[in-house]
Design a protein that fits this description.
19% of the residues lie in helices and 29% in strands. It is built from 1 helix and 12 strands; from the N terminus they run H-E-E-E-E-E-E-E-E-E-E-E-E.
Length: 198
């Protein structure tokens, strides 16, 4: 008696193979998309922790934003001509210039109560308006237009040291040499301006 024929498994058709490959590719693509999205989310979260804070924007007429005002310390003559050297017997005049480096008009306190002049020789404090009589000095709000400098009136320095007893002509005179001026206005400090006394 001849043996019974074996049942042969029918191979899947090419279309089934193709559908399986497409399904596998879709699954792999979804997995990769999930991994990339997760990594990007983690990177963004970490970056936001260390990103610098964005400076607040202000509207015209509001107080100037921090960093929008610069102060320049200036030394020169009574008619506001800047100079770097002064002959013996010639007293320097001191003033400052404010500049709004923002993009809109803003208000700033530039009153005498918040103005401080400091003169040093190296690290030696020579004269500061903090030791002058500041009785009656007040605040004064000014409007600063973008990139339009605003200068103060010049004040004469009598080539003397200041002390706890005052800052005027009755104080000790200084010697010839190199000095530097800084000005602080409304909490904003200028760069140093060096000058020479003969």
């Amino acid at each position: 008696m001849p043996p019974a024929p074996r049942n042969r498994q029918q191979r899947p058709s090419p279309s089934v193979y193709r559908n399986r490959r497409i399904a596998a590719l879709i699954i792999v693509a979804l997995l990769l998309w999930g991994i990339v999205s997760g990594v990007m989310w983690v990177v963004g979260a970490i970056g936001s922790m260390f990103a610098p804070a964005t400076a607040p924007t202000i509207s015209a007429g509001q107080p100037c934003a921090s960093g929008d005002v610069t102060v320049e310390a200036i030394v020169g003559s009574s008619d506001k001509v800047a100079s770097e050297s002064f002959a013996m017997g010639s007293n320097p005049f001191l003033w400052y210039q404010l500049t709004n480096i923002g993009s809109v008009d803003c208000t700033f306190n530039a009153g005498a109560a918040v103005q401080f002049y400091t003169i040093k020789s190296g690290n030696d404090l020579i004269w500061t308006s903090r030791e002058c009589d500041r009785t009656g000095l007040t605040d004064a709000t000014v409007t600063l237009k973008p990139n339009v400098p605003l200068s103060s009136a010049p004040s004469e320095w009598l080539r003397v040291r200041s002390s706890s007893s005052g800052c005027g002509a009755d104080q000790s005179p200084v010697d010839a040499g190199a000095y530097n001026l800084t000005v602080e206005v409304g909490g904003v400090l200028s760069q140093t301006n060096q000058f020479l006394l003969g």
